[in-house]
């Protein structure tokens, strides 16, 4: 930023990070039904999380949740160089899976994530939520309103 020294920027980032982590510790951000959907899907498909969250934030978000056992791996912001909407996070995930673009489906809830998946050449299903409802999802191949719809979409493709 013009006119702001690096020390000030770093100090403000620490304040922001502390505020965000306090939010994560106190707010209910659970997605209803996610455990059941992932438990069923885990019998048919391999899954991973590719997130722009920093490792410390991811740990806070998921310490009381039970979804990571269904995942083969988790990629956080520190695991790749360029963040979404760059395709690198999803291309890194594909490489880690040893999978092709054609065999993968990205599930996203943000336009940045959608743009990342599209740039990586991977089909994307958008799960709508109130926080991102005003974002542009026109490039998504699938638009779903609930995780139950995701389950149906994935199971139809897997069987």
From TrEMBL:
GO terms for molecular function: phosphoglycolate phosphatase activity. Pfam families: HAD_2. It comes from the Bacteria. Keywords: Hydrolase. The keyword Hydrolase applies. Coiled coil: none annotated. One of its GO terms (cellular component) is cytosol. One of its GO terms (biological process) is DNA repair. InterPro entries: HAD-like_hydrolase_sf, HAD-like_sf, HAD-SF_hydro_IA, HAD_2, HAD_sf, PGP-like_dom2. This is HAD-IA family hydrolase.
């Amino acid at each position: 930023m013009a006119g702001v020294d690096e020390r000030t920027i770093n100090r403000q980032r620490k304040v922001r990070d502390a505020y965000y982590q306090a939010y994560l510790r106190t707010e209910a951000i659970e997605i209803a039904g996610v455990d059941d959907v992932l438990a069923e899907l885990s019998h048919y498909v391999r899954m991973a999380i590719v997130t722009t969250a920093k490792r410390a934030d991811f740990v806070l978000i998921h310490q009381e949740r039970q979804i990571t056992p269904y995942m083969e791996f988790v990629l956080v912001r520190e695991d790749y160089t360029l963040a979404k909407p760059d395709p690198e996070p999803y291309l890194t995930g594909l490489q880690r899976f040893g999978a092709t673009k054609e065999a993968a489906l990205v599930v996203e809830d943000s336009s940045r994530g959608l743009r990342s998946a599209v740039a990586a050449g991977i089909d994307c299903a958008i799960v709508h939520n109130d926080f991102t409802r005003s974002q542009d999802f026109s490039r998504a191949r699938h638009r779903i309103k609930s995780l139950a719809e995701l389950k149906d979409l994935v199971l139809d493709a897997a069987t």
